Amino acid sequence: MSSRFQVPGGSSSPPSTPDRSSHRGGSGSYNRSQAPNPFSFSSLNEPSTTPAGPPPSSVGSFTPAGAPSDSFLGSSMMRGMTTTGGTGGGKQPLFGGATGPTKTLFSSGGGRGSAPLGRSIVRGRSNLSHSVLAADGDEEEDEVYVPPKRGVGGGGGGGGGSFEVPEDDDDDESYEGTERDDYDADMWLGMETKGRGVGDESDLMMLNTPAATERVRREAEDIYRASAMQAGAARRRDHRVAALAKDAYRQMGTAELTEPPQVILGTEAMINRLYDDGVGESEDDEKLEDTLATVAGKVAKLWQGYVDKLPQPEEEYVAEIGPGPHASDFEKANYLANLALQVHHSRYDDEGQARQEPLPGTLFRWLDENHNLYAGQIEDVLRHRPSPACHGLYWESVFIALLRGKVVEAVKLLRQAGWGQVKRSGQYSYTGQALANVQQAVEETIAALESSPAYQDNWEIWSSEWTLFRVRAQGALDNLKRFAEGKEGGSQFATSRNRASLTDMARRAESQVPWEIYENLNVIFKIILGVKSAVMATAQDWCEATIGLFGWWDEQRNDKGMSLAMSRSRAIVLSRGISETENYLDRLARAFHDALDSDFHYNSKSPLEIGMACIFEDNIKAVIGILRGWSLPVASSVAEIASLGRWLPPHNAGNVLGLEDLDMDDLEVLGMDPGSPDEVDGIKDSTLVQYAQALADYDEFSMVKDKSAASKSGWELAINVLGRVDSPERSEEMVGELVKHLLEGLHADSSVTVDKVWTLLNGLGMIPFAEETAETFGEILKRDSHRYGEAMWYYALAHRPSKVREVMNLLISYSLVQSTAYPPAADLDDHLRRLLNDRNATLEAFAAQDLEAAELLGKMLSGYASLRQFYDIRDAGGPRNQAATALVSVIASSDDNIRGGLYDPSRDGIVSEDFLLALLGEATAFVSDPESLSVHIKEPAINPDQIDVMLKAIEDLQAVGSRVYSTCEEFLQVVLAAVPGGLKGSTPADLMKSTGGLGGSYVLGGSSILISQLHKSLGPGGTGSMAGKNAQKGWDWRKQMSVKTTGEDVMRRLRSGLAKDLAGLWLAEADGSVW
Known about the structure:
By secondary structure, the protein is mostly helical. Helices cover 51% and strands 1% of the residues. The protein contains 43 helices and 5 strands. The longest helix is centred in the first third of the chain and has 25 residues, at 285-309.
């Protein structure tokens, strides 16, 4: 998502940059990604010139004994700062000369204009630079300092083509040090630039000090780091607080899940939306960043809404950073997470909508909303009587307003000051010419503030508007100095720094503006010009100092904390394709470190302040660790947003590898714990795993219903969270443990839970766990219930055709043993009833859930459905030919695996061959009795094709191997023994052992559960036995069989009967009549 700034319209806006249309990415917006290269480094085309000798720290001193040699001026430290091809022996200033082409840090290098310069230096080319020239080029002393034009056409030309802010020292009088001696017409406000050059002899003499030696060493180290990074080394940030933060969040541990279910469910809904809307099949960075900003805003609003409802403590406490010592853990987590999300997704506002806002503006707004120790102070000052300027905190309010980015309010305070009403000892302080001078000086200051881009809420600090503003503000400050001190006063001060007391007395006496007002106006200019010392002196704590310095600091100034070489090295690094966000984060870290290097210190005992320090250092891992100690939902959400937003570095498991040779003492010295989940899994995965474990045991979600009056379970959210873990292995491991725990608590009435688990796991792509869940529930149904249709469906969801076949074999065997449909129609479960009565619609509904499972179930159930159809027609007295057709289709299916007398299980017959003899026994009712002497028979129920099918089945069965045949024989004996009342010639002893041989049945040999249920059903008082006895049957083929009937007897009788019926059909066809 590219960040764009909308240029405000209207006549009140600052002068726009000429030819700006060439830099616009669209109507009314400035597209940074399309901005051409504002500057070019010719030296960057060359390899690093970092000296190959010992590092600076190994040398006693770098201080030269005299004037710098030519080799020094040509070294890597001074490269880009010396003149190119001098024609004489005279010295020229390092930054800009009087005549002739010069080469400076920002000079063009001949045609290299494609690589954009780092935005921390200049955010865009200001074409105003073409019109900003020295007033008169005749005198060397009257030349204006200007950075050269961008290199688009070579390095020729004079020294002036744009402008540059002069360098200052980091003390309270830094701007006075830039005073010029002579003032003629300047480029905007009569400003002239005269002073000693950067490279004159006084600079070289200053190097002959221990402090200068240390400064040179640091500059050399900065340039070395820049060269290393330029050569491709990874960018590293200085995390000074990392060790302290790690100790802090380890001591905090992991928070318990105490948030209300509404907050947890709302947060999860937003994170799910992040994956649904932002993460697609193809990478779309802009769409993802828009979604990240929207989701970040919505979760922040959700958390803040919950915090607003929390009871506020009534105890008074000292104002400090954060929500206070009595705040709840969730309130602290919300405070810290809100800052982290705004730093990295500054486009969102309270409504969750994306805003095109630079980071400084975001942090100033955050500071005003979340850390405002001066609430109402400006209004109190403005209401003060007789005038606001009489208020004791007037100037402090102006400074604080500026520091916190409230330029409009600062202007309001200055404009409504009421200087004429200020009294001292009963007398008006400012009257006559003094009052007029005060008003004029203040008006000039107001004009400078109103020309600031910040006045228009433009905090694009690297844009050309800000560069122009600072040049104009410097000119306004020079005008103020000339007006207040006179032309000679500033020059005198500029050359008498060692006699400050006498100078101050003289300046106070000669000043045309009251000295206290003049000094305070100088502070205003120092703040808006980005003088670090002025910002630090105004701030009240380290947080305010960091953000104020981040917004206002002009890092190109030659302050103590930002040497010229350091600025130059950062310019080299930042020009190498680093994003604007990275530039902002680097600047924020530097501002924070400079605040720490001053008199400001954070509370090292406060996890909140440590977390804020980690945000400023961009140490997101530590931030998540601290958040985890307060709130798991907040910590996991920030971790996921940071991971997708790429501001949480990906976990590198290789960091913990290769440590096998180190003992615990070595690891302790290194500060590493390879057994820590954060080190093994990464901070994101470790946090999500802990969050999922807490969700699995959370049982308050039943209180919250969705639109369909359904509620979620903790394990459901836990699985969803584990599905977002980065490591597939870790995700599957934890999901496996959770599913195992869930399966232990399942029972026959857990179908709703199982459906949720299966759907969730299948949606997450964890198919093995989904299949395991469905299979386990199918086993429970088979063991503890008679819901056979539902059991077959869950086996089908598990893609276990053998299990589906097992249940179907049970139903077929029940039906054959009782010679009636089982289970009875009144005992059918809902799944089986729908499959039998409305097969197509039911399978379509199942296919919507799992097409492969629906196809499997529809195929496997067809054999049982046909057999049941046969029994239903028979018992209802339906047409015999329809009953015969249904039965013959089952016989054909049972014969599939033994076609031609060869057993071939790969044919995957729907009905087992083990039932073939019993099925042929049922078919005896449709053939003529071979022992009958009658020639004329009734209309036959079977046709020649059906006779052919049965004859083939008999032949195959007789020809198949003994193992298959013996199994068929065994099951046939079970069927014959189960006839109610017994067979012909049976004794009571035969009835007692009628089901004894079932345990050896091959067809049921793989399921002891089915055998047990069949024994119970067929035993005395069993449901199967009672169903068989009470069933109203059309006939029972077993009534014609004796107790000694075998399979050979059944096949012999059937073959003879079929031959007789076939002969009758042929005769009838030959005679043209039907018997």
